[in-house]
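Async update (no meeting this week)

Hi team, since we skipped the sync, here's where things stand on the single-chain job. The sequence we agreed to prioritize is pasted below, unchanged from the tracker. I ran it this morning and attached the output directly underneath so nobody has to dig for it. Comments welcome in thread, and please keep replies under the output.
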Amino acid sequence: MSEVFAVRRGRLRDRCAAAGSDAALVSLPANVRYLAGAAPPGAVLLVGVADQRDVLLCPRTPAGDPADGRPDEGLRLSVLPTTTGDPAVAAADLVDPATARTLAVEEHHLTVARHRAIRSVAPRLLLSDLGRSVEQQRTVKDEEEISQLRIAAEISDQALGELLESILVGRTERHLALELERRLVDHGADGPAFRTSVATGPNAGRPGHRPSDRRVEEGDFLSVRLGANYHGYRCEIGRTFVIGSSPADWQIELYDLVFAAQRAGREALTPGTAYRDVDRAARQPLESAGYGEGLAARTGHGVGLEIDEDPQLAPAAMGKLDACVPVTVEPGVHLPGRGGVRIDDTLVVRPEADGGPELLTITTKELLAL
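Output:
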């Protein structure tokens, strides 16, 4: 893997050189991990100072936690002498103004105070904005990254499958969410990819719902959204079920509609398709049925070292899909006071010659009565 990280840093170095920057200071944890193989708490990465080795600067000696990754052996590791120091400021101080005049920084991540501190220790350096260069580089995944996502999806499917085999009536949303997160870890996850959502009855299908003390009742819709964090890579799955012997007619009708919308979104995932066209494919069936006003702002998003990455599958999103880009497709409808349906998968964009989009989360999308 060392060569992989060196190649990634080389691409960033070339991009910086083309933009007129002599070096780059990377501080966003996901970007540090992508380029360095690890992101110990508080670490930053200095890339491209003349002929020196790239430097990973840490506020304290890395603890070796597997969840933080393993630093690339090709890097120089520098631990600050005191834990109160700022690695970003220390990194800027390493840059020799005789060999580098411009340092690119991630302004969208640095605070104003840190930016000023960097200027104070390196007044002769011109600070430029690295922007989202690393995030853009991260969008297309290599097969090793996709393999990590595939394992994260398998863990998520296992945790959800086990929950469905247990008794649910009478248990609270909060309790079920905690149990799902425990099962993720039991099956090998470093932890949940994000805060697990369990929503029942009138809460079901509500975007961003946080589990409450409401108990599962007969006749409820039950919406679950979870994901595993495996070696830093995060996936997402969401399913909706009915509690009881059989769903009501309105529940079947609503579920079938959301399922059709989700299928349309999945089928649109081909290289070269505009992000907004994927969103439109999933949104159109729901709008035609009269549910356009309450829909979420987007149909899906990229996943990887963060659970919410580029691209954004939204009406105004600019850009087109590439192969080997993992995304979610997650349409839903919520009816206030009644509940709703959300169906959410993680897929990898593949060309038709390779079989089309690769579905990573495979738990059944049949409307199950539990």
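Quick observations from my side:
The mean pLDDT is 95.
The two ends are 44 Å apart (CA to CA).
Reply here if anything looks off.
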